[in-house]
Amino acid sequence: MPKSEAKIGGLLFSQKISKSLLDVGLHNIVLAKDLDTSSMLDSLRITIAGIKKEFAYYLIWPVDHPMVQSSTVSILIETAIQNPDCIIKPEYIGRRGHPILIPAGLDIHNPVYETLREVLRHSGVGTVIVAVDDPGIIQNINTLDDLIRYQDIGG
Fold first, then answer.
1. Which of 22, 84, 91, 98 is the most exposed place for a label (fewest CB within 10 A)?
2. 3-152 is a CATH 3.90.550.10 domain
3. pLDDT for 66-105, tens place per residue?
4. Is the CB of residue 35 less than 8 Å from the CB of residue 50?
5. What burial class does residue 97 get, using C-beta atoms within 10 Å of its C-beta: 0-12 exposed, 13-18 middle, 19+ buried?
6. By C-alpha distance, which of 88, 95, 16 is closest to 59?
7. Among 74, 44, 75, which Cα is nearest to 61's?
8. Which of 72, 83, 90 shows the shortest CA–CA distance to 131?
9. Residue 35 and residue 136: Cα distance in Å, rounded?
10. What is the pTM of this model?
11. What pLDDT is recorded for position 97?
12. Domain extents in the chain
């Protein structure tokens, strides 16, 4: 089953993520769904190119991380407001995870780079690491076993 069709707590992963965003007052939600691309970066490039409204940041939230708490999103947004033009990344007990915030002005279209990690590493933009008390940022649901495990702990 594709991750886009997986459910946790009765909701599709994308619905759970959208609910978390709505819970903190974010209403401009654009999903990179059903794109036939070879990478997350290609999906991001296509999705951002299709956005007509201007934003200061883009929140990059992979669909396989649906367990992130709304409070974490609030903390990341507050940090972005305090640190304009920086990449904002959450960290839980020493491990970085998702979602991340990137400045909208960041050039993700340079074809030299094949992954978002490469774009971020070579961007010249500062990074702020935010300690959060949220294991959801590192709970990547890739397999049926992962899904079952996370269902059992509160999905």
1. 84
2. yes
3. 999 999 999 999 999 999 999 999 999 999 999 999 999 9
4. no
5. buried
6. 88
7. 44
8. 90
9. 25
10. 0.90
11. 97
12. 3-152
